[in-house]
TrEMBL record, chain A:
<dbReference type="GO" id="GO:0003677">
    <property type="term" value="F:DNA binding"/>
</dbReference>
<keyword id="KW-0238">DNA-binding</keyword>
<dbReference type="InterPro" id="IPR000524">
    <property type="entry name" value="Tscrpt_reg_HTH_GntR"/>
</dbReference>
<keyword id="KW-0804">Transcription</keyword>
<dbReference type="InterPro" id="IPR036390">
    <property type="entry name" value="WH_DNA-bd_sf"/>
</dbReference>
TrEMBL record, chain B:
<feature type="transmembrane region" description="Helical">
    <location>
        <begin position="213"/>
        <end position="235"/>
    </location>
</feature>
<feature type="transmembrane region" description="Helical">
    <location>
        <begin position="75"/>
        <end position="93"/>
    </location>
</feature>
<feature type="transmembrane region" description="Helical">
    <location>
        <begin position="242"/>
        <end position="260"/>
    </location>
</feature>
<keyword id="KW-0472">Membrane</keyword>
<keyword id="KW-0812">Transmembrane</keyword>
UniProtKB/TrEMBL annotation, chain C:
<keyword id="KW-0472">Membrane</keyword>
<feature type="transmembrane region" description="Helical">
    <location>
        <begin position="166"/>
        <end position="188"/>
    </location>
</feature>
<keyword id="KW-1133">Transmembrane helix</keyword>
<feature type="transmembrane region" description="Helical">
    <location>
        <begin position="123"/>
        <end position="146"/>
    </location>
</feature>
<feature type="region of interest" description="Disordered">
    <location>
        <begin position="326"/>
        <end position="349"/>
    </location>
</feature>
TrEMBL record, chain D:
<dbReference type="InterPro" id="IPR017871">
    <property type="entry name" value="ABC_transporter-like_CS"/>
</dbReference>
<dbReference type="InterPro" id="IPR003593">
    <property type="entry name" value="AAA+_ATPase"/>
</dbReference>
<dbReference type="GO" id="GO:0005524">
    <property type="term" value="F:ATP binding"/>
</dbReference>
<keyword id="KW-0547">Nucleotide-binding</keyword>
<feature type="domain" description="ABC transporter">
    <location>
        <begin position="8"/>
        <end position="242"/>
    </location>
</feature>
Length: 129, 367, 349, 303
């Protein structure tokens, strides 16, 4: 079961945080098709946010076709998000190699992260929110 | 309730999933809440972890039970007091009276004789009479202070009024729950006192006209208790603070008692006896006034023994003073009940007025 | 009684401010009682005397009958005045227990004071000293007026100097009892820590002191003992205590009542007992009216000693409580309900 | 969505204590739709407690009316819960006795399990129950936070449609605040309970409330969805200029530079740098400027 972590000072709208964290869980395989998302009650009891915020996030996920609400049962994952578990195609291993290389070049952790993000933004500019 | 924040505790999710809801249960939850987005979602999937033992109790609120719960100590104290008074009376009428009677028998014809037991008998009966009669002062203190005053002062009353019980219903419950034991206890006290007082009249110096004996021998005892309760409630509703309400309610019922004590003989028409010669009314009568009839007018300022001497001297004296006879105004013992019931009625009327005023004021204050 | 220079200024003033309603109540009570006593001394007495004289033109002392509307009013007012002054100490005790100390502890005003750079001991000193000033002053005024009323109304007053209420209202013991009420009330308030129960405890304690005082009063000064063969003379106005017969062996045997009352010469009560199984005489003990003053002073001392003990106990109790650096309220806290460490928060919902 | 029934509605509501002391609450008109979680914020003495007492029917307004759940407070008594600021409880009862008191007084609605969860279930991470309440403990012996918990247990046990909570967080530690908010949100999620919480700290309710009532000087200054309220305001910074056309809430600055919080009446000129204010900035600006016009967003005004 996924757990949401709400950062009130991030400046990112609360419902967006839930959407993003759900998607990340889908991407990492923490959530798989058929899994049930926590109920609104469970989420708000743990995070003390307004229930409507959770529902708005779930509606957003439903609109994107990632989850579906089954009456009386809960909200369930319909499909996973694109990515295959990294190691089957060796992507993750190659990324690890790249990190070793960067480390050998004397790059700090922050430098690697900035480098990766710059390349990512150049290739796939951030989608409109 | 749930655990701390989700992020803080790795065990949190497991703890929650243990309470995984049963499907389909969510839809019935929610009482009469308005339909809304969250509710819809709850029905759609979320489910509820409402525990099965969370069934609701049905029926109307029971403020009476709640009042008992809140004031159990006071109830126990009242019960203890009634029992103690009855015990003292029983002991006095059996053990002490025996000793006093033996003492009296010993004293017949003796010029020097201790009468300690007889005095103790009278003292103890008189003490209980005082306690039974003036118990209403303690009731007033309790009603103004602990029962209503403290609840209004510390907000317990507000707590109750926002449960499913209206202020008026709460006041009614408090009055009723307090009135019932007061009535029962008063009845026990009055009946036992009547029994004890009449058991050995020959040993008692107390008369039926004594203020405390007069009240303690009938329903006026209960009436004063109820009045003290009502006045305490009114004082508390007006002042909304325990100690001032206590002071005001005690002072008010004491004043009422003193006023009625002063007017007591006037509450029922008295008997007037006139005669040409001086006379004494029976010792058991309550004499209010006596004097001479001077020129057809009753004058209390002239005593019945103005003219002494031989018959001729008396005649002359009366003629000189224009005294045509003597009179006495009094209540015979048979007037006890009309006098007592009249006083009871007045006290109950005051109690009713105070109760009405308390309800009106409460209604005026709250929505 | 206590010079104002001894009253700590800051806390003293705050005591006055906190109990302004009580101050006004006290002042109006003293004023009302004073007015009643003064009325009974002046116009009331005059009208009652006129009533009496109308019935007894020859003089009141020999008149067996005094009644009339003004006499009735005079009797009521003077009796209520006596009762009022004699029972002031109960009012003081109840107030001190409930409002002065009990409520301040209950609602935390006391703790507020203790955190305003006033030590608990100084707070209690101010709590006691300021009311003591007003209580002493007011009671003294009332006692003086009561004496005035009784002295002026000797020709009409029926109550004797040794009757419980009269005795307690007619001299310095009135002030002593009032101060004792204050001290006992404060102690009860400290011990109980809650207004309404403290009220009950304070009243009960004061009642005990007053009842004991009434009971042991005759023993506070040596009694006068007289013996006679057939009768003894007890002077008029004396407080007659005990009497009995002297047996042939010389032993005194008490009897609960004088065996025979007879109006002796000069209005004195002669106690005459017939010869009874070899009695050689009779005896009686009494306090003459001249003992009023020594009895008052000894009882005043005794009651003030009780008050001092109560005050000392209050200070000791306060020191023991506050030395532990925890407010009195914490004493009653259930064990385990307060978490010992910060990790488990007691107040969580 | 049921916009017809307001959980709480005030029309010209006012209260004053005798003539000489003036108004405690003056001409309050607003409506709170059912199902909302409403933060009632404002400085001390703003009239928050008075408003809640009026809604709870504990006092009678001197002017105007207040409707609770579509009816008067007295008629709605069984359907709302109220927790007063000082959390009054009978000191002589035990915790369990207090809950039984609640059961006796709310027989029609009482949910013993819901009350017990609030009072007794204290989930420390390692199962430590030292912080949970002893049912046999007397109310008198409890700490402020523990008493708050019992008072809230009474409110939850009633299973109300509307909760009126006056400063419920004041005595609680941060963890307990979070747990209380969580429990309240759970109640709202499952039963659609309308919740009104008063507080003078708005940040602690951030994210939890979807409605806001700002009180100041006995008036309702702002009412509505906090996001809408914030969106209606803009922070303008620029050379001192004319601000006509905009509703100015607050403006501060020197001759050369001016910072103003406005409700824009149109697109601001190019000289202005614009920024979105935070909710706290909007609230504080209104409190600092009692003369600024009140704002009640649509949907929350009385029809």
């Amino acid at each position: 079961m996924v757990e949401y972590r709400i950062d009130r000072r991030s400046g990112v709208a609360t419902y967006v945080q839930i959407v993003q964290q759900t998607k990340q869980a889908l991407r990492l395989g923490v959530l798989r098709p058929g899994d049930r998302l926590p109920t609104a009650r469970e989420v708000v009891e743990a995070t003390a946010i307004n229930p409507n915020t959770v529902l708005k996030a779930y509606r957003e996920l439903e609109r994107e076709g990632l989850v579906e609400a089954r009456r009386g049962l809960g909200t369930f994952v319909r499909r996973s998000l694109g990515s295959v578990p990294a190691d089957r195609s060796g992507l993750r291993a190659r990324l690890a190699d790249w990190l070793d290389e960067a480390h050998a070049e004397g790059l700090e952790r922050e430098d690697m992260s900035a480098l990766f993000r710059a390349a990512l933004d150049e290739k796939y500019p951030e989608e409109q929110r | 309730m749930s655990a701390a924040t989700a992020g803080d505790t790795p065990g949190g999710a497991a703890g929650r999933s243990a309470g995984t809801p049963r499907a389909g249960e969510a839809g019935e939850a929610g009482g009469a809440a308005e339909a809304r987005t969250a509710k819809e979602a709850a029905r759609e999937g979320a489910g509820s972890d409402r525990s099965p033992e969370g069934g609701r109790t049905g029926g109307r609120a029971r403020p009476g039970v709640a009042v008992l719960r809140l004031h159990r100590t006071a109830l126990l104290v009242w019960g203890g007091y009634v029992l103690a008074a009855v015990a003292v009376l029983v002991w006095t009428v059996t053990v002490t009276a025996d000793a006093a009677l033996r003492e009296q028998a010993r004293c017949v014809g003796e010029p020097v004789c201790g009468i300690a037991a007889t005095l103790a008998y009278g003292d103890r009966i008189g003490m209980v009479a005082t306690a039974v009669c003036y118990g209403f002062l303690v009731v007033a203190a309790f009603a103004g202070g602990a029962l209503f005053g403290r609840e209004l002062e510390n907000g317990t009353a507000h707590l109750v009024w926002t449960q499913s019980v209206s202020p008026a219903r709460w006041l009614a419950a408090e009055l009723a729950v307090a009135a019932l034991p007061l009535l029962l206890g008063s009845a026990v006290l009055v009946l036992s006192f009547r029994w004890a007082w009449s058991a050995h009249r020959e040993l008692l110096g107390t008369d039926w006209t004594f203020a405390d004996v007069f009240v303690a021998r009938g329903p006026a005892t209960a009436a004063y208790c109820l009045c003290a309760l009502a006045v305490g409630a009114l004082a508390a509703v007006v002042l909304r603070r325990a100690l001032p309400a206590l002071g005001v309610s005690v002072a008010s019922v004491l004043a009422l008692n003193l006023v009625l004590d002063g007017f007591r003989p006037s509450l029922w028409p008295h008997v007037t006896r006139t005669a040409r010669t001086p006379f004494e009314v029976s010792g058991s009568a309550w004499q209010i006034e006596n004097g001479a009839v001077v020129g057809g007018r009753r004058t209390a300022e002239l005593g019945p023994h103005l003219c002494d001497g031989t018959a001729a001297e008396v005649r002359r004296c009366m003629a000189e003073g224009d005294i045509t006879g003597y009179y006495a105004a009094y209540h015979p013992p048979s007037h006890f009940w009309p006098l007592h019931l009249a006083e009871t009625g007045i006290v109950l009327a005051v109690a009713a007025l105070a109760t009405g005023a308390a309800f009106l004021l409460l209604r005026h204050r709250t929505a | 009684m206590i010079p104002s220079s001894l009253v700590p200024r800051g806390p003293g003033r705050s005591v006055l401010r906190l109990h302004r309603a009580a101050l006004w109540t006290w002042l109006s009570l003293v004023a009302a009682t004073s007015a009643a006593l003064l009325w009974a001394y002046g116009p009331g007495h005059e009208s009652a005397l006129a009533d009496a004289l109308r019935q007894c033109p020859d003089g009141i002392a020999l008149c067996d009958r005094t009644s009339g509307p003004w006499i009735g009013r005079y009797d009521t007012v003077s009796a209520l005045g006596t009762i009022g002054v004699a029972h002031l100490s109960f009012l003081v005790a109840g107030w001190a227990g409930a409002a002065l100390v009990g409520r301040e502890l209950e609602n935390g005003t006391a703790h507020l004071a203790w955190t305003q750079s006033v030590s608990p001991a100084r707070w209690l000193a101010a709590e006691l000293a300021v009311p003591a000033l007003f209580v002493s002053a007011g009671t003294t005024v009332l006692v003086l007026l009561h004496r005035l009323m009784r002295d002026g109304g000797r020709d009409l007053a029926w109550a004797s100097w040794y009757e419980y209420d009269v005795f307690r209202a007619d001299g310095p013991v009135a002030v002593a009892y009032a101060l004792c009420g204050l001290a006992l009330g404060a102690l009860a308030g400290l011990v109980v820590g809650r207004a309404l129960p403290a009220l009950g405890v304070a009243l009960a304690a004061q009642l005990a002191v007053v009842v004991l005082g009434n009971e042991y009063r005759p023993k506070l000064w040596p009694v006068v003992s007289v013996t006679g063969t057939g009768s003894v003379d007890v002077p008029s106005g004396a407080a007659h205590l005990h009497q009995g017969v002297i047996t042939a062996g010389g032993a005194r045997r008490a009897t609960s009542v004088p065996c025979d009352f007879a109006d002796g010469p000069n209005g004195a009560n002669g106690v005459r007992c017939g010869a009874e199984d070899g009695a050689s005489g009779v005896w009686a003990t009494y306090h003459p009216e001249s003992h009023f003053r020594p009895l008052q002073l000894v009882e005043t001392g005794a009651v003030l000693a009780v008050a001092a003990l109560a005050v000392a106990a209050a200070f000791l109790l306060l020191r023991r409580r506050t030395a532990a650096a925890s407010p009195p309220a914490a004493a009653g806290r259930a064990p385990g309900s307060v978490p010992a460490d910060g990790s488990a928060t007691g107040a969580s919902v | 969505m049921s916009e017809e029934t307001a959980a709480l509605k005030a029309v010209g509501l006012g209260l004053r204590y005798r003539r000489r002391r003036g108004h405690v609450l003056r001409d309050c008109s607003f409506r709170l739709p059912a199902g909302r979680v409403c933060a009632l914020v404002g400085p001390n003495g703003a009239g928050k407690s008075t408003l809640l007492s009026l809604a709870a029917g504990l006092i009678r307004p001197t002017e105007g009316t207040v409707h609770v759940l579509g009816t008067g407070p007295a008629e709605a008594r069984e359907r709302f819960a109220y927790v007063a600021q000082d959390k009054p409880l009978p000191p002589q009862l035990t915790v369990a006795g207090t809950l039984r008191l609640g059961a006796d007084l709310n027989r029609a609605r009482w949910d013993a399990a819901a009350a017990g969860r609030i009072a007794y279930a204290h989930h420390a991470p390692d199962g430590d129950r030292s912080g949970s309440l002893d049912p046999g403990a007397r109310i008198r012996s409890l700490s402020g936070g523990q008493r708050t918990r019992v008072a809230l247990a009474l409110a939850f046990g009633k299973r109300p449609e509307l909760m009126l909570l006056d400063e419920p967080m004041a005595d609680l530690d941060p963890l307990a605040r979070r747990e209380l908010l969580g429990a309240l949100m759970g109640e709202a999620a499952e039963h659609g309970t309308t919740i009104v919480l008063s507080s003078h700290i708005v940040t602690e309710l951030d994210g939890a409330c979807d409605h806001l009532l700002l009180m100041g000087g006995g008036r309702v200054r702002l009412a509505g969805d906090p996001e809408e309220l914030v969106a209606a305001h803009t922070l303008l910074t620029g050379p001192a200029r004319d601000l006509t056309g905009h509703t100015v809430v607050e403006s501060r600055g020197t001759d050369r530079q001016l910072t103003a919080l406005v409700r824009p009446g149109g697109p601001p000129g190019d000289d202005w740098r614009t920024a979105a204010p935070s909710l706290e900035e909007v609230l504080l600006a209104h409190l600092r400027n009692p003369g600024a016009p009140d704002l009640v967003t649509e949907g929350t005004v009385n029809p």
